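Entry type: protein chain
Record version: 2
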Amino acid sequence: MSIERGQISQGETVREITVLIEKQSHKITNRAGLEETAACLACEATSSSTTRGILKCLGYREGFLSRGSLLGSDLVFEIPDGLTKMQTLQTLIYADRHRGHGGEKPLDYRFQLSHRIAEALLSVHALQRVHKNIRTDNILLLKSINNEESQIGDPYLIDWTMLRSTRIPSNQKGDNDWLTNIYRHPRRQGWQLEDRYNMGHDIYSLGVCLLEIGLWEPLIVENDGHHMLHWRFCKAAVDTDAVDAKDVQNVVALTRPRVVQQVFIALAKKELQSRMGIAYTDLVISCLTCLEGGFGDAKEFEENQIAVGVKFKDLVLQPLSALS
């Protein structure tokens, strides 16, 4: 991801703009895929003045080697005027890790932030698309560089590399990167994925992000250049008997798929009520268990996406709206 300045022509008018560039070379290698992704995001960002959380996609650009072979492709997004101060949500939470719960961020803002992110995900699903990559480091916070009195900023989903239609089966190719896998549902982790991707997997990932916002503690920390899980996660893993005490620093044991989900649910039940209240706790748990009955019959994620959207509004958006 990079930020650049550019110009855009609208009739006879040419204006200066700031754009966000997302590199796509290692994921999307065909022009049809790029065009479909760009068109989909462009339509969503311009179809309604109330759309939040999705930057307007201006299109894509390609780079070629000297012999004409495709070097790489980028999606180009316009950043709203005046919003030039940016950081990811993960970076912000990590920066506050030594300042106590919530740092200097008011509770109301964290409710609003959660609501806006959930709204953005609903917008993606309304297009019959799944994002497939919801993580706190893929949520960009934008604010005016001249407005230091404003709060954290407006959240936008980024990294659309894996966006696809819900009507097209996923390829079920995974990886063993625990840094990204901890945001994924247990059945979507590792090399051999058990489930084809559906909206429920996005909602689970949203639940992990909402847990991180509620705790206002990073799930991942660094120590001497190495990534580790936050001590609170490790403690909860031992307290719930998800791992043995001897494995409290063993990343492989701590990041086994079902262990991660079990610990997230335990953390939500133990820590969120006193920090964020019962309503917020309940909706986070609903997201984390949506494919295990938290949203009712899990078959609806494959068979009745309209019903899933209604339940998402009832179980997640409406409670967040009331809180914010």
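Comment: The two ends are 31 Å apart (CA to CA).
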